[in-house]
């Protein structure tokens, strides 16, 4: 692809991007306690004595959280460290009762991996993953509940997070957006995170620096807790431009933590950026190192589903789908599951026709309704029945669209709609011939013009016939009989 450049007053600048994605692990319990993790619960109703840091309470690792992080590492072909260790990261947060966060700095659970992303110009780029470590989330401070006090909700305190740290391999907002979308897709396929960025279960810290093309890396800033792909791309664009303007005006970029204000479309300084030594990391004395057995690792690998890249390749090679259709149908795990349920009813030999229908008809209808495929009013089995009714000649394409619209409104099965509303296509040659005779008798002038060489009028006669039969005539039969009648 063409290199993305910031045009400054003194020349071109290159942007360098690294992302730290915090993904909440799919688990019914927290990382070191049995407290629940459901979203939207009443404040402070999902807090154990461990989460509240009561004296004498000791953490116990949740094996499901470890398992999900390992499976995620395997899904991106990362190195899995059979021996890892938890560290204490010391800092005071009012919503972190322990006064420290249990994290992993020196010996993370997952080492280096990589993700391939597809870009708009048709190229593919591989982006390196530095590490994945597991850590506790903090709680939530609420400053708008009382005029004089801040309230604290500890429901999130202790929830397991995977921090997925990329290498500084991205060079444009588009690459950053493509990386987060692909990572989110993989996490949802694996089932290790639901990827709901609007609920905060996946968010990113965006590291941005600028440099002259080919020069050493510049000083980076980190914009915290950005919770949508669109905002991540906006942060890169704004922060890169801000840094270029600052440098060209004679200023210096300061290593700092910033916040993004989506209403104003800008970042602003939060605090100077701390280095690892400022947090006084040391091995957590309450937790033994994690040692993963070969059997545990084998079970994790065996539990992985077919991942998006492999599924896409199979759709192209085995099902014969176009590269575009395969990419669209495998981008999100819900779409792939829905499509495969449809194919299970229809048979793989119908994959091309089914994929076209899903992408054009179903997606078009769901977009108008503002729904995702997981909330589709039409089930895969009913969709399969609709496509079979078209294939066996019961419905024409036009009638099928009518039936589909009724299915979306009512949720009824297509065969019931066809019977109750009399929408069955007719191939009765006698009935069609009678209507054609009426159409030709009413349009003698156009018949004469057609027979005089105006071949394009054939479409007019087809349209008039279909209109007279309320769209229920078999178009193929209409075409054949009209050709015969017009001689």
UniProtKB/TrEMBL annotation:
MF (Gene Ontology): asparaginyl-tRNA synthase (glutamine-hydrolyzing) activity; ATP binding; glutaminyl-tRNA synthase (glutamine-hydrolyzing) activity; transferase activity
Domain Asn/Gln amidotransferase: 337-486
Keywords assigned: ATP-binding, Ligase, Nucleotide-binding, Protein biosynthesis, Transferase
Superkingdom assignment: Bacteria
GO BP term, pick one: translation
Reaction catalyzed: L-glutamyl-tRNA(Gln) + L-glutamine + ATP + H2O = L-glutaminyl-tRNA(Gln) + L-glutamate + ADP + phosphate + H(+); L-aspartyl-tRNA(Asn) + L-glutamine + ATP + H2O = L-asparaginyl-tRNA(Asn) + L-glutamate + ADP + phosphate + 2 H(+)
E.C. numbers: 6.3.5.-
Alphabetized SUPFAM superfamilies for the sequence: GatB/YqeY motif, Glutamine synthetase/guanido kinase
Keyword Chaperone: no
Family to which this protein belongs: Belongs to the GatB/GatE family. GatB subfamily.
Task performed by this protein: Allows the formation of correctly charged Asn-tRNA(Asn) or Gln-tRNA(Gln) through the transamidation of misacylated Asp-tRNA(Asn) or Glu-tRNA(Gln) in organisms which lack either or both of asparaginyl-tRNA or glutaminyl-tRNA synthetases. The reaction takes place in the presence of glutamine and ATP through an activated phospho-Asp-tRNA(Asn) or phospho-Glu-tRNA(Gln).
Subunit description: Heterotrimer of A, B and C subunits.
Protein name from the UniProt record: Aspartyl/glutamyl-tRNA(Asn/Gln) amidotransferase subunit B
Native organism: Allosphingosinicella ginsenosidimutans
